[in-house]
Design brief:
10 strands, 5-stranded parallel sheet, single chain, alpha/beta, 3-stranded antiparallel sheet, 17% strand
Length: 228
Amino acid sequence: MQTKKVDIMNLVFLGPPGSGKGTYSLRLSPLLGIPHISTGDIFRDAIAKKTELGKKVEGYLKRGEFVPDDIVLKVVRERLNQPDCKKGYIFDGFPRTVKQAKELDKITKLEAVLNLVIDESIIIQKTTARRICEKCGDVYNLADIKMGQFRLPPILPKKQDICDKCGGKLIQRPDDTEEIIKERLEAYKRQTQPLIDYYKKKGFLKDIKIVGPPEVMVPRILKIVKGL
C-alpha cells in the first residue's frame, strides 16, 4: 500500500486496552512517515533497562494501574522534542485523562483523535492471545475470533514465536492476563470517558468501529486520516 506523505500530521489513538491501538498505529506510522509513540512501550523499555524511570513506574504497571500524570507528561515532552517528531506523530493510548489532554494542548496541535470502538468480550479474547516482539515491539495475535458477523482471524508470524520484521522473540506481556485486563477496562471507563467527551466538544473525535482484521481496518482508517 502506498500513500502520499503529509507535511504535518499529529494524531491520537484512543480505545480500551487491547482494542488495537498499537496494531493500527504501528501500521499507519510508515504509511504516513511519522513515528508511533506509545508511553507504555517507553515505560516497559525503561523497566527492562532498570533506569530511574523504570523503577518509578514498575509497580503501577504490574498492578494494572495508570502511571501518574506528572511522570507521563515529562516523558511525553521529552519524546516530542526528538527530531523524528517534526513532521508529526501517532500517540498510542495517550492522553488518558482530561488533565493530560489539556497539557498536550499547550505543547502541540492535534489534527484528529481516532477512537477505536470494540466489544469488551472480544478485547479479552484478543488481548490474552497477544504476542509482542521483545526487540522491535511489532504486534501479533494467536486468537481466531468469530462472533456473529464479527470476524478477526489471527495475526501469525511466518515462523512460530519469531518476529517477521526483525527476528526477535515473541513474548506475552505480563499484564496481558484476563484478571488485569478486566481491571484495566474498568479503570479505562472511569478515567477516559471524560476525555472522550472533552474531544467530542472540541470536534476532534472520530469513532472507528472495529469490524475486522488490520487488512480490512487499516485502509479504512487511512482514508479517514487522508480526508482530514
